[in-house]
Amino acid sequence: MKHSGVGIASFVTSIVAGVLIFLLVIIAGVLEVSTPGGMDEESIAAVLIGLFLFAFLGAELVALGLGIGGLIQKDRKKIFAILGVVFSATALLITLFILFLGLAMG
Predict the structure, then answer these.
(1) Helix 44-71 vs helix 79-105: angle between axes, to the nearest 10 degrees?
(2) Domain-wise residue ranges, the chain
(3) Cβ neighbour number for residue 41 with a 10 Å cutoff
(4) Which residue spans traverse the membrane (predicted)?
(5) Who contacts 31 (Cβ-Cβ below 8 Å, separation ≥6)?
(6) How far is CA 105 from its chain centroid?
(7) How far apart (Å, rounded) are the C-alpha atoms in residues 48 and 83?
């Protein structure tokens, strides 16, 4: 059996988007700490960080959908589809937890 192309796409998309979300959170933290009084919520940097965060969360949702599509394909190996679903769901849950934690503290 061949590997599912949709599963491979899910795996790659979930890894790339997850790493980019992680880097974005690090960048936001550094900007918050390095700016006296904290980062202005209406600055261009804050707006861009928010837009990129939603874009990468959208990419994680796409990866989740691709992974589910890879899981329902017949006569294909499903390891990459499983990994794509697990990685994208984990990244989504952790990111949403961090967002809600930030909202609760702020």
Answers:
(1) 150
(2) 5-99
(3) 9
(4) 7-31, 43-72, 79-105
(5) 39, 45, 46, 49
(6) 22
(7) 30
Can you read off the two tokens belonging to residue 5? 């192309």
User: How confident is the model over 13-58, as pLDDT tens digits?
Assistant: 999 999 999 999 999 989 988 888 888 888 899 999 999 999 999 9
Q: Are 39 and 53 in contact (CB under 8 A)?
A: no
pTM: 0.89
Q: Residue 2: beta bridge partners?
A: 76
Tens-digit pLDDT profile for residues 62-72: 999 999 999 99
Separation of alpha carbons 56 and 51, rounded Å = 9
- Report the alpha-carbon distance of residue 46 to residue 26 in Å, rounded: 13
Q: For 106, which DSSP code?
A: -
